[in-house]
Specification:
The complex is a heterodimer of chains A (205) and B (123). Chain A is an alpha/beta fold and 205 residues long. Chain A has a single domain, classed as TIM Barrel, CATH 3.20.20. Chain A has an 8-stranded mixed beta sheet. The longest helix of chain A is centred in the C-terminal third of the chain and has 13 residues. By secondary structure, chain B is an all-alpha fold. Chain B has one domain. Chain B is built from 3 helices and no strands. In chain B, helix 1 runs parallel beside helix 2. The chains are: A alpha/beta (205), B mainly alpha (123). Chains A and B meet through strand 1, strand 2 and helix 2 of A and helix 1 and helix 2 of B.
Chain lengths: 205, 123
C-alpha cells in the first residue's frame, strides 16, 4: 500500500475517446516503448515535469466528477506512458474508489504477464494499441520485441469482450495488408472489437 | 459555431439537469456570460456541480447510476467542429466524425486539465 506514481497530466471531461461515459484521463510517466510517433514524449524523459500522487491523492482530485462518472457509466482512464507498469497503484486506487466507477486502461501491453494478471480483476475496459503483430515491424517502430504483447493478448483472450484493440496504419512502417493480417491473427485469438485507423503524422498531414 | 469547450460545457449542463430532474432537485443552469474561450468548465459550473453533489449526498436513495448517457455527439480531439457541432437531435445526420488519430493518448490535447481551472474568469 501507499503506492506513489508520477503523472504527466490529469485531464477531465473526456467524452467518447476513452470508452463509454465521461472520463478523466490520468496519464502516468514512463513507458516500455520508444515509438517513433509517440504523442507524449514527456512520458519517456526523465527530466519531464511530473506530479506525484498516491492513489488516495488522485482519488481526492478526480472524485469531484463522480456524479458525471456514475450518471454516464464513465470513470477514470489510465494511460501514459504505460499504465500496466503501475498495477500496484491501480489496485490500491480500485480499493479506494470502489466498484461503481469504470476503470479503463489505454495500454500497449508490453509488460510482464504478472502485471496484466494483477489488473484483470479490477479493470473494466482494456484499450490496447498493438502497433503491428509482425515482430519486425513492431521492433522497427517501437524499438522493442513484441513477444510479451502477444503472450498477454493470449492471456486476455479469455475476457475478449472487455478488450478493444487499436490496429493502426503506421506511415512508413506498415500498410493495409499488414493491418489486415494483424486483424485476422487477432480474430483467431478470439478478439472481436477492433479500431482500424491511420496514425496522423508529419508524413501524411 | 460552437467550440469544443462549449460543446463539453453544454453536455455537462445537460447531465447535471438530468441528475437533478431524476432526483426531484430544483436546478436551472445559469446563463453563461463568459466571453473567452470556454474550456468545458469554469468556476461557476464547478460550483453548480458541487452544490448538486451536496444535495444528492443529502438525499436517501438518490438515483444517479446510468441516468444520463452521453448524447450522441463525438467530442474527440481534432474532430472537425462542423461534425462536433451537430445538434443532439440530429443523430444519424452528422456522418462519421473526422478523428485525427495518432499514437498514444495525447494528454496535452485535452481541455480541463485540473491546473487550468484557476485561470478561468467568473462572470
Amino acid at each position: 500500500m501507499n503506492q506513489k506514481a508520477p503523472f504527466i497530466g490529469v485531464a477531465r471531461h473526456r467524452m467518447t475517446v476513452d470508452g463509454e461515459g465521461i472520463t478523466t484521463l490520468a496519464a502516468f510517466h514512463a513507458c516500455t516503448l520508444n515509438c517513433k510517433y509517440c504523442l507524449n514524449p514527456q512520458s519517456l524523459r526523465q527530466e519531464s515535469k511530473t506530479t506525484i500522487y498516491t492513489p488516495a491523492e488522485l482519488y481526492e482530485l478526480v472524485k469531484v466528477d463522480e456524479l458525471y462518472f456514475l450518471a454516464t457509466n464513465g470513470g477514470v482512464c489510465f494511460g501514459g506512458g504505460e499504465p500496466c507498469l503501475r498495477y500496484e497503484f491501480l489496485n490500491e486506487f480500485r480499493t479506494i474508489c470502489g466498484n461503481s466507477w469504470k476503470l479503463t486502461l489505454e495500454t500497449a501491453l508490453n509488460v510482464p504477464q504478472r502485471n496484466v494478471e494483477a489488473l484483470v480483476p479490477i479493470i473494466d475496459h482494456w484499450i490496447i494499441d498493438i502497433k503491428d503483430t509482425n515482430p519486425e515491424t513492431y521492433q522497427a517502430y517501437t524499438g522493442r520485441d513484441n513477444a510479451l504483447v502477444m503472450a498477454n493478448l493470449r492471456f486476455l483472450s479469455n475476457i475478449a469482450d472487455k478488450v478493444h484493440i487499436r490496429v493502426p496504419l503506421i506511415p512508413g512502417f506498415n500498410n493495409k495488408d499488414d493491418q489486415e493480417k494483424s486483424v485476422e491473427l487477432l480474430k483467431t485469438m478470439g478478439f472481436t472489437n477492433f479500431d482500424l485507423f491511420e496514425y496522423k503524422t508529419d508524413i501524411n498531414k | 459555431m460552437k467550440t469544443k469547450g462549449r460543446i463539453v460545457c453544454d453536455e455537462l449542463k445537460r447531465i447535471r439537469y438530468e441528475i437533478a430532474k431524476a432526483n426531484g432537485i430544483d436546478y436551472e443552469p445559469t446563463e453563461c456570460k463568459f466571453k473567452g474561450e470556454c474550456q468545458g468548465t469554469c468556476p461557476k459550473c464547478e460550483a453548480e456541480l458541487a452544490e448538486l453533489t451536496r444535495k444528492i449526498k443529502e438525499k436517501k436513495n438518490a438515483k444517479i447510476v446510468g441516468i444520463a448517457p452521453l448524447a450522441k455527439i463525438a467530442i474527440a480531439a481534432g474532430m472537425t467542429l462542423s461534425a462536433a457541432s451537430c445538434n443532439n437531435d440530429m443523430e444519424g445526420e452528422c456522418g462519421e466524425p473526422d478523428f485525427v488519430r495518432k499514437d498514444s493518448v495525447e494528454i496535452s490535447r485535452t481541455s480541463n486539465d485540473f491546473s487550468q481551472i484557476s485561470k478561468y474568469n467568473l462572470e
